[in-house]
Amino acid sequence: MKLVSISASEQAAFYASFSGDKTFLQGAKYGTWRESIGEVNHRLGVFMDNALVGLAQCQMIAAKRGNILLCSHGPLLNDMTLLPDFLDTFTQFARAEKADLARISPLLPVETETVFEAGKWKKSAPYMVNPSRTLTVDAQLEKADLLAQMKKSTRYEMKQIEKAQIVVKQGGMELLNTFWDLHEKTVARQKFTPFAKGKTQKQLDIFGDDCQIFLAMIDNVPMAASLIVFDDAAGYYHQGSSVRDKRPIAHATLLAAIEESKKRGCTFFNFWGLSEAENKKHPWWGLSRFKRGFGGTEVEYAHAYDFPITWKYWLCHFVEKRRRKKRGYE
User: Fold this and answer.
1) Fewest 10 Å CB contacts: which of 66, 144, 280, 303?
2) Contact between residue 143 and residue 314 where contact means Cβ atoms under 8 Å apart
């Protein structure tokens, strides 16, 4: 097995043809965005006997605690029996790139954790490096069927959208400033570390029509907004913001996003990360309960894993484990 740099067009072609579970984190535009914010991005093709059999886009995350070679929602392998060989080859690549540890947050069944552990990989300390638990709904459902699968309370909120005269506007870069005003209000209210506005601006620019803002307004006053990323397979709920209001303003943006996913021919709408339903102390519990109200299918993937390369792995593990506990993720 060999890991070989491929072009963005080769990456996009393989990604489009891949029929397994995937997200835009392995897509070519995402790689270009990571490069635009100053990161080293590797578009790696997985080759067996000169045949392209997989994709493993990854970034070198440079930090004082250690350099991390991160593969998010990869690898995408046509043959899962190649996973042990891939893990060995990826480790060798990480060593050659002077990483202190290799990290993979895969979209693979939970059962594959035994493969990682057999290769002496260790579970990552950060909680949900990228979401390992998510919720998807069938984007091609008729609206009546979509409503029928929702929880009763969410279905009631959907019926209130028209009564509350909530209008949803869809757009791109022209809605960024409005989105960001709402985003700053959300950050102030919920006390979380936000994306930088410049990074979101570059994301909108690079993804183009595949990154859209859905803005909910009442009497022309912006109330809530969702930033959605699209690819050939799904729409993804990537960022959200709102003012505090009891009316179903966030529901309206996501209903519009699901409807747009259907128009584009997407198979699913992906609500992104969830916390465990029974853990009411988790910082994401309220948001996760909101997402679960839409019904659909909850999917859990294998945990993120690290492979130690230098002593800095242990420093990184200690720092990240401490942050995880401090932020209430355990």
Assistant:
1) 144
2) no
Cα–Cα distance, 54 to 79 (Å, whole number): 8
Cα distance between residue 268 and residue 281, in whole Å: 29
Same domain, yes or no: 275 and 138 = yes
CB atoms within 10 A of CB 290: 16
Give the whole-angstrom CA distance, residue 12 versus residue 28: 5
Task: Dump pLDDT digits (tens) for 107-144.
Answer: 999 999 999 999 999 998 865 557 788 999 999 999 99
Q: Are residues 121 and 217 in the same domain?
A: no
If asked whether residues 160 and 45 sit together in one domain, one would say no
Tokens of 15: 């990604």
Residues 153 and 270 in one domain: yes
Looking at the structure, do residues 172 and 204 belong to the same domain, yes or no?
yes
pLDDT digits (tens, 9 = 90+) for 292-321: 999 999 999 999 999 999 999 999 888 887
Mean pLDDT for the stretch of residues 43-67: 95
Pick the most confident of 62-66, 80-84, 192-196, 323-327: 80-84
Claim to verify: residue 56 and residue 114 sit in the same structural domain = yes
Phi, psi of 115 (to 5 degrees): -70, -45
Which is it for strands 268-273 and 133-138: parallel, antiparallel or unpaired?
antiparallel
**Residue span of the structural domain in which 159 resides:** 133-300
Is the alpha carbon torsion for 315, 316, 317, 320 positive or negative? positive
Q: Are residues 93 and 216 in the same domain?
A: no
